[in-house]
Write a sequence for this structure.
């Protein structure tokens, strides 16, 4: 009984650390909460996370969505909040909010920041954490052409990384039929 209580306490502590880290990366607490509510409403309006994935990235034949996680993508302009999709064929990220940029003809355009990495193009996935603050965990994805993508601020980091490793290993070591 003690083991079960300690195990549940540890899971709850990890979840609380994940929420704290996720909120810390946002600009302001009120803006983060507003963004999460807006994201939740958008997901409900579209019809669930599977449809969000399908709408933003399309689905290839035989592709199955394994895990969706809220997190941040590290960019040179700072962290961008969004959803990380892990499927049987790729890892994809779509920002929570649209981003403004200038088009070639000078007009301001708003689009969602998107990344799509085929699993067969991933060289490795690494876990990392801040030495001073171990609750700050990072996930690095390195592609075969040596681009790296850093994700952070997961609500459940271990689960997301576990699904990522599983998806990569299934592509790199397919089961023969």
């Amino acid at each position: 009984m003690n083991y079960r209580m300690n195990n549940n306490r540890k899971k709850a502590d990890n979840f609380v650390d994940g929420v704290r880290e996720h909120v810390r990366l946002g600009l302001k607490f009120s803006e983060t909460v507003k963004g999460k509510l807006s994201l939740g409403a958008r997901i409900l309006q579209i019809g669930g996370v599977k449809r969000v994935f399908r709408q933003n990235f399309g689905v290839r034949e035989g592709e199955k969505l394994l895990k969706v996680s809220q997190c941040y993508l590290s960019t040179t302009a700072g962290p961008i909040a969004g959803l990380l999709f892990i499927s049987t064929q790729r890892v994809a990220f779509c920002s929570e909010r649209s981003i403004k940029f200038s088009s070639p003809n000078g007009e301001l355009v708003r689009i969602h920041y998107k990344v799509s990495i085929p699993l067969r193009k991933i060289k490795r996935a690494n876990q990392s954490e801040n030495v001073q603050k171990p609750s700050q965990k990072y996930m690095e994805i390195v592609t075969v052409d040596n681009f790296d993508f850093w994700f952070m601020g997961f609500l459940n980091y271990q689960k997301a990384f576990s699904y990522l490793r599983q998806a990569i290993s299934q592509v790199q070591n397919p089961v023969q039929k």
Notes: Confidence is low (pLDDT under 50) at residues 18-24. Residues 64 and 88 are 5 Å apart (CA to CA).
